[in-house]
Amino acid sequence: MPGVRRTSGQTEGVTPITFRPRLAAAALLPLLAAAACTGGHPASHGSSSPGAPSGSATVSSSGSASGSPSAQGSASGSTAGSASASASAAPTASTSSTATASAPSGTSSSGYPVAIWPTYHHDTLRSGVLPNAPAISQLRVIARAQLDGAVYGSPIVVRDGQGDLVVVATENNTLYGIRDDGQIAWSRHIGTPVDGSALPCGNIDPSGITGTPVYDPATGLVFAVAFLAGFHHELVAVDAESGRLAWTRPVDPPGSHPEVEQQRGALLIAAGRVWIPYGGLYGDCGPYHGYLVGVPTTTPGGSAVIYQVPSSREAGIWAPPGAAYDGAHLFVAVGNGAQTDPSGPYDMSDSVIELDTAGHVVSYYAPANWADENAADLDLGTTGPLLLPSGQVFVAGKDGKAYLLRAGALGGVGGAVPVLPLCTAFGGAAAAGPFVYVPCTNGVHAVRISGSTMTPVWRAAPPGSPIVVAGTVLSTDRSGTLYGLDASTGAVRWQTALGDSLTRFATPAAATDGYLYVGTEHGMLVIVATR
User: Fold this and answer.
1) Roughly how many angstroms between the first and final C-alpha of the chain, as a whole number?
2) Within a 10 A sphere around the Cβ of 33, how many other Cβ atoms?
3) 3-state DSSP call for residue 474?
4) How far apart are CA 323 and CA 355, in angstroms?
5) CB 298: neighbour CB atoms within 10 A?
6) What is the side-by-side order of every strand in the sheet holding 412-413?
7) Where are the domains of the chain?
8) What gap in Å lies between CA 186 and CA 440, rounded to an integer?
9) Which stretches does the entry tag as region Disordered (predicted)?
């Protein structure tokens, strides 16, 4: 978004914008009409927010109708198919089944499924901790559901009258609802993904839904962003129980270059909006920028808040956890930017940024050597901010250091903050009690936090982004082994082979009935019993 930045001082770019809902495919109209008639999610347009602050612009966009997602996967039909430990064939992506639960005991007072693990690492703090979990006594694979593409995001989990329902997304742009016995309840194919060979760089082929979806218990909808052939990103809202497509809308920021923008970071629901982070492709090619886009959860119309990191290029918000939220403000980690001259103006790259829900910068932190780190590609953008109950913000990056910041006053450029030489970190950390568990290239590191002091405690072999369940740290490796580590010592208590290799940033999801869920590189959802 050229021109939406300042060249000196604290920089920011915020754009309220109205998108037109994506309704071009005629086959979508009956579904949307049905949603409107049943008190679901009718389309409405809304208007752009007035009074955009300095360094921002108010833009109206009609949204292009080209390449709109097809209605593959009808709202009715026979069961989509099933898969279990016997590995039956996946259903075709053009079919889905309907949910049959009536007055389910697993629903909330709103009538929608209960949120169990509704977002990346469980909650908006990105804690990675499952409350009220039963004790773990084993790790045992009990089922595998075969899908139609690689899984890069985390599964999410809801509960309805039939039990747990796991929602998982693939790079073939298909969403699945799967029971904890491996039976596929529904599938919803959004549209043709982008052929990786058509992109100027990158390492995902095909490229479809990469970021972790999010469930909204207030609407009963699951939100995901699909990268569609023709190079555009589409937010889709589907009913969690049935997979019915409620609505879609384009979410590429005006002036952006979607062919080099990657939506890898997890989606977040906060302050009535779905927050969507963008970074670049592997290889840092082209004129991409870091963006955080927030659109309403209740309608495909309405204004969107768009924050653009004001580097001349790069400075992506790409880490798998996406944004975090403490109930008032949003926090993002930003990657390397184009500015490598330390005497030049700071461009908000290599940073942690705190934003209000209107997209205004509240505070930020960057190391004093941010320009050198940009030049060497050693930035903070490789893990998401982890928000601690103390009001502190933990982040670690490629530079081998961990930082402990204070929400509301992150420290500015080169601020005096606690710093711990630790490891090269990638993915999403977890926090339980006084410990933070950090995914590093040489394994998970446990760090004890006491006040402003960080102390390394142990390191274990698996490098995968960890979660914590019943005093056990659960982490994976690329070969497809799931480890259960003692949270106090790092000792391996259990391990099991999942039966497929994993993507680099794979992380488990968990449910309170004693199951874990992991998506794999070759398109499986693996279900693991813990008792």
Assistant:
1) 52
2) 13
3) strand
4) 10
5) 17
6) 324-325, 330-334, 351-355, 361-366, 412-413
7) 14-61+78-84+112-529
8) 36
9) 39-109
> Rounded to an integer, what distance in angstroms lies between the CA atom of residue 276 and that of residue 224?
9
- The pTM assigned to this predicted structure is 0.84
Report the C-alpha gap between 348 and 352 in whole angstroms.
9
Asked if the model's pLDDT at residue 50 lies above 50, the reply is no
The token duo for 185 is: 């309840």
Reduced to 3 states (helix: H, G, I; strand: E, B; else coil), residue 424 is: coil
Summarize the confidence of residues 326-331 as an average pLDDT.
99
Among 352, 341, 324, residue whose Cα is nearest residue 413: 352
- Are residues 531 and 136 in contact, defined by beta-carbon separation less than 8 angstroms? yes
**Strands 467-469 vs 129-130: parallel, antiparallel or unpaired:** parallel
pLDDT of residue 106: 72
Q: What CA–CA distance (Å, rounded) separates 318 from 1?
A: 18
3-state secondary structure 488-513: CCCCEEEEEECCCCCCCCCCCEEECC
Contact 69, 234 (CB under 8 A): yes
Are the CB atoms for 43 and 34 separated by under 8 Å? no
Query: Taking residues 357-385, what's their average pLDDT?
Result: 98
Q: Which fold has domain 14-61+78-84+112-529?
A: Methanol Dehydrogenase; Chain A (2.140.10)
- Bridge partners of residue 475, in order along the sequence: 483
The beta strands (E) that lie in 346-487 are given as 351-355, 361-366, 386-387, 392-396, 401-406, 412-413, 419-421, 430-432, 435-440, 443-450, 453-460, 467-469, 472-476, 481-486
What band does 270 get if pLDDT is binned at 50, 70 and 90? very high
Q: Quick check: 255 and 1 in contact, CB under 8 A?
A: yes
Q: Which two tokens stand for residue 88?
A: 């039956």
Nearest to 309 by CA among 334, 346, 329: 334
| Closest listed residue to residue 401, CA positions, set 434, 443, 430, 440 | 440
- Give pLDDT tens digits for 428-459: 999 999 999 999 999 999 999 999 999 999 99
Asked whether 243 and 74 are in contact (CB, 8 A), the reply is no
129-162 burial, b if ≥16 CB within 10 A, otherwise e? bbeebeebeebebebbbbbbbbbbbbbbbbbbeb
CB atoms within 10 A of CB 18: 19
Q: Mean pLDDT score of the chain, rounded to an integer?
A: 85
CA–CA dist 295, 375 (Å, integer): 34
Distance in angstroms (rounded) separating the CA atoms of residues 158 and 162? 11
Dmax of the chain from CA atoms?
65
| Distances in whole angstroms, Cα of residue 410 to Cα of each of 96, 142, 204, 363, 391 | 47, 45, 34, 6, 11
